[in-house]
Amino acid sequence: xxxxxxxxxxxxxxxxxxxxxxxxxxxxVALAVIDPDTGFPYVSxxxxxxxxxxxxxxxxxxxxxxxxxxxxxxxxxLLAGEPGKGDPLAHPRISVQCVAEAVERDSDVYKRLRTRxxxxxxxxxxxxxxxxxxxxxxxxxxxxLNGGFxxxxxxxxxxxxxxxxxxxxxxGREEExxxxxxxxxxxxxxRLAGQLGGLSPKKWxxxxxxxxxxxxxxGDSALRWEFQHPVRRxxxxxxxxxx
Amino acid sequence: xxxxxxxxxxxxxxxxxxxxxxxxxxxxVALAVIDPDTGFPYVSxxxxxxxxxxxxxxxxxxxxxxxxxxxxxxxxxLLAGEPGKGDPLAHPRISVQCVAEAVERDSDVYKRLRTRxxxxxxxxxxxxxxxxxxxxxxxxxxxxLNGGFxxxxxxxxxxxxxxxxxxxxxxGREEExxxxxxxxxxxxxxRLAGQLGGLSPKKWxxxxxxxxxxxxxxGDSALRWEFQHPVRRxxxxxxxxxx
Lengths: 243, 243
Prior knowledge:
The structure is a homodimer of 243-residue chains.
Chain A: H1 13-24, E1 28-34, E2 41-47, E3 49-50, E4 56-61, H2 65-72, E5 75-80, E6 93-102, H3 108-120, E7 133-146, E8 152-156, H4 174-184, H5 188-195, E9 205-210, E10 213-218, E11 221-226, H6 234-239
Antiparallel strand pairs in A: 1-2, 1-5, 3-4, 4-7, 5-6, 6-7, 7-8, 9-10, 10-11
């Protein structure tokens, strides 16, 4: 929404970091589209991964209601951030308005997303190559962050985007770079998860790398490690790791 | 969506029961509205309770983006049903298209909803009477149920509505009726929760009664006990209790 009532706080670095982590650590989101037949909004649940430029990406069946809606009207909105214990409204969440971009099969973007999606959602291997499944990139246009009671922020799209991926020395060879990270720092996943306070009965593994951070996954839990500063070289990733 | 691809199953009583329980056991939902400024969908999280006729009801601030949107366009959609362990898409959820009805303060509906909302969300007592808060009833127009992979159903609005509340002998005296139930069957909440497989570290309590069932709550968990048949007398509730 464009108006800015007085309850909206000034966006600071902490709010921007929270917004990014909510979107990038999400395994699934509520996705709202517009039903082309009725004009009603329509909200459903979809799995999500983040593309290297920060755009959330979804893998959907052509038979699904949201795919039909997005083919007719690319405007959509996603809600990320799940409640934990206690009052659901005390837990941070973010609403992001997006424009959906259908991804061409056999494009470089498709290959990159396929890899990122499978490392994040290993079970998607079972259907990711079905001919009726496709990716959409949900390109952020703006967002509303609610960090808990009285902590509302409006963010422009650029706060959620990641720049400079194509200039990194791991662009296009992300899987290899992730393997290199694990070879050089075998406990990297556990170490980052520990710093982030991540609890899981299963082992953590790193499942995504971009210029702004590392994605971690363990069973039903996901985490996002944001770098202090964007990186250009894999070497910079090591230098920025916590002790 | 109005078209019905072949992947949609025929709706049976089990699907109808699942749909009702998902909506009526929800403590919160993702609510999608249409942003009046941009035409984009906008999805955010709201607490929810069910009115005696089955319509979900939300308590929202006039300052919130969804309230402004609903004032301009009453069409909305909610997503109920939270994932548990494992694949998020294996867990049942329901998307309900609704028309929002603003509830007048000091109306009978308002009084009923205020009571139902507070018994379900005790902390809402802190702000429910603030002058900028209001109730909306989200009157179902139709729904899509996804019971897990390959289990998709389309439901008409009437499958989610509850009829005959005003003819029950507990209409307008629901709190009293709940107390009577507990006096006559002191372990009623634990007994119903046990039958429903409800696990919670805290004690269960009954927090809602209508012609179609009983709502239960315990800390962060909520359950819905659906009667075998709709009831008209409190006496019928006892007769239908599990042993």
